[in-house]
Amino acid sequence: MALSNSQIQNIDDDDDDFQDACDMEGAAPSYSMDLDSALLEAKLAVNLFFNNKFTEAEALMKPWAKSSMYHSVGHSVFAYLEAMLTFEQQHISAASDALKQCLGVCNRYRKKNTLTETIGKTFKRINYDQYTDVEAHAELCTAEAMLLKAMLTFIEDETLTSLIKGGMKIRNCFAMYKECNNILVQRNWKSESSKVHFESGVRMGLGTFNLMISLLPGRVIKLLEFIGFSGNKQAGMQDLVAGSQSQGIRQVLCVMTLLGYNLIVCYVLSHKEGDLKHCDELLSKQLKLYPDGVWFLFFKGRLEFMKGNLNEALMWYKKSWKSQNVWPQFHHLCFWELLWVNCLRLDWRESLLFATYLVENSKWSRTIYTYQKASIMCMLKRSDLTSTELRTLDGLMREVPKYKQRIAGKSLPMEKFACKKTERFFAQQSFLYVPALELMYVWNLFKILGKHFHLADGVYRIVEENLSELDERQQKRIPGPLTAYDVDNRALLLLLKGACLRQMDSPLQALKCLEAVVGMYKDLKEDFYLVPYAIVEIALIYVDQGNKERAILELEDAKKNYSGYSLESRLHFRIHTALIELKGKSYENIPAGND
Q1: How many CB atoms lie within 10 A of CB 299?
Q2: Is 224 in contact with 199 (CB distance < 8 Å)?
Q3: What local confidence, expressed as pLDDT, does residue 88 receive?
Q4: I need a surface site. Which of 25, 130, 249, 568 has the fewest CB within 10 A?
């Protein structure tokens, strides 16, 4: 069922900005641009943007942002990206104002229904041929602006109320995308060009929603279905691939979504590989169109990183970093990646340079950045650190909890994890066992080790060295603060060793290490997360061996019998995707959601 102008207006009665935007509906624009011209200019702005000509693209959009919906959406996207990259209040406010204006502009062009027509929609089929091209595109642009406004809500005010408001806006946005799909399919389009541009937007919106919702754990999906969401991975991928092959204005955004999913989301939220071959094909085409484009240079670096080609990854990330200076905050994405590429190369000093820059310049998560820098310093032998660096290390660990954020009244899991580790650092007299390797593991970077034996072997040797040191200290019965955490420290090292051995294709040795971790559960003092993570590693060994039944048993064990541990949600995402793969679609049980 379509959302009327009044329903859109009343999505959030407490949101004054949104209300004001819709109140602008009655104000007719002093000048206007026809739809075809607006689409041509928007297409030109997209090309300028992806060729790093951000200022020129914005200059093209801004003059018409108060009267043309496509110019208004374009202007809002620029403001939104700047807000997300900087996290500075002035840019967040500017983005909010731009989106408020955009929603008002879009609302002026949406189809106006009489009370009789609105009531009639409930009882009879809607005749979408009554929509003009402009009115159809206004629905799509409204859905896009609503989605950005909802996402901005989460960082404007980090309270539970804002979280609920944002969720409701996203739900209504999803409903509008489904309505746009009805318009696409059921309307008799007279302009093929208008339809192509409209279809690319529908494909991008529904494809992204279906894909991302399908990744969520089952219990979350059931809740989302109750409030009107649904997700289907296959349908989402089909929509995005179709959109990426079209000539529509949002074609490049479909490409970006596919690259983001295959090169980032798959590696963070699951044990599976992304479709690297498809990404290679997409990037080959896009880099011909945008040879210096910061986004595609970045994704090319990510592709090489996921292939385990670390030197090539360094080269492409550095190209992306140096390709533009208009948005220096984008450099932070490159520095994050360069930090981890150098960690996998075991070049701690080089990694430390990028970690330092992030601590000093980025505002995304000072807690995580600070702990990461401290963790990398811990990988260097204390004898290799100067007295100043030792003081810096202690200072960093003390600062980690100071920057901890709360969203909707809750701490971010990774920040909470970092704070716990700093407590352990001081409890063990300024010492942690291989903290950077532990972070590499929880960020799911160990799967890259399997690409080349020497990468896994380098990490394996460090773990073995630390295990030998722990064995030697225990044999000598040397008393001290470390003794209280011997079981936790050994369990961590054995988990990392087992994970390395799995990547080195030594399953029997890996199982021996991982089963030892599981057996330590009752003796652990703090690091209870190690056991369910070890069980999932065991399950993945059985997956590799083709023993599906045993793998499912292990995954169900980790899912049902362990709770309340650090980074639990992160592991549940991976368990969910593994179970879908092993049990098939019957486990997923998610309808396509096409009304």
Answers
A1: 26
A2: no
A3: 80
A4: 130
Q: What is the distance between the alpha carbons of residues 198 and 181, in angstroms, rounded to a whole number?
A: 9
For the chain, the residue count is 595
d(CA 240, CA 275): 14
Dihedral of the CA atoms 422, 423, 428, 429 (nearest 10)? 80
Burial class (CB in 10 A: 0-12, 13-18, 19+), 449: buried
Distance CA 411, CA 413 (A): 6
The vertex-265 CA angle with 261 and 266, nearest 5°, equals 90
Task: Give the mean model confidence (pLDDT) for residues 401-405.
Answer: 88
| CA separation for the pair 342, 351 (Å, rounded) | 5
- pLDDT(368) > 60: yes
Q: Is residue 562 scored above 60 in pLDDT?
A: yes
Nearest Cα to 274, choosing from 307, 296, 245, 250? 307
Rounded to whole angstroms, the Cα distance separating 268 from 182 reads 34
Q: Which residues contact 236 (CB under 8 A, 6 or more apart)?
A: 206, 207, 208, 209, 210, 211, 212, 214
pLDDT band at 225 (very low <50, low <70, confident <90, very high): low
Q: Which residue has the tokens 């590429």?
A: 341
Average pLDDT over residues 279-284: 97
Nearest-angstrom CA–CA distance, 404 and 366: 8
Could you give the percent of the chain with pLDDT greater than 70? 85
Whether residue 432 contacts residue 375, with contact meaning beta carbons closer than 8 Å, is answered with yes
Taking residue 359's Cβ as centre, other Cβ atoms within 10 Å add up to 19
Residue pair 351/343 in contact by the 8 Å Cβ criterion:
yes
Report whether 363 contacts 88 (CB < 8 A). Answer: yes
Output the CA–CA distances (angstroms, integers) from residue 200 to 194, 249, 307, 360, in the order listed.
Answer: 10, 7, 30, 40
| pLDDT at residue 427 is higher than 70 | yes
| CA 377 distance to own-chain centroid | 27
Please tell me the pTM assigned to this model. Answer: 0.88
pLDDT digits (tens, 9 = 90+) for 164-186: 666 677 788 888 999 999 999 99
Terminal Cα-to-Cα distance of the chain (whole angstroms) = 9
Q: Which two tokens stand for residue 70?
A: 């496509």
434: phi > 0 → left, psi -120 to 50 → alpha, else beta; which? left
Q: What is the mean pLDDT of residues 493-517?
A: 97
CA-to-CA distance for 481 and 462, rounded, in angstroms? 22
Question: Do 440 and 446 meet the contact criterion of CB atoms below 8 Å apart?
Answer: yes
- Amino acid present at 465: E
Q: Residues 305-332: what's their mean pLDDT?
A: 95
- Residue 84's pLDDT is what? 83
**Residue 407: strand pairing partners:** 410
Residue 148, pLDDT score: 87
Q: What is the residue-wise DSSP string for 324-378?
A: --S-TTHHHHHHHHHHHHHHHTT-HHHHHHHHHHHHHH--S-HHHHHHHHHHHHH
d(CA 464, CA 203): 50
- Picking from 317, 382, 387, the residue whose alpha carbon sits closest to that of residue 351 is 317
SS (H, E, C) 83-124: HHHHCCHHHHHHHHHHHHHHHHHHHHHCCCCCHHHHHHHHHC
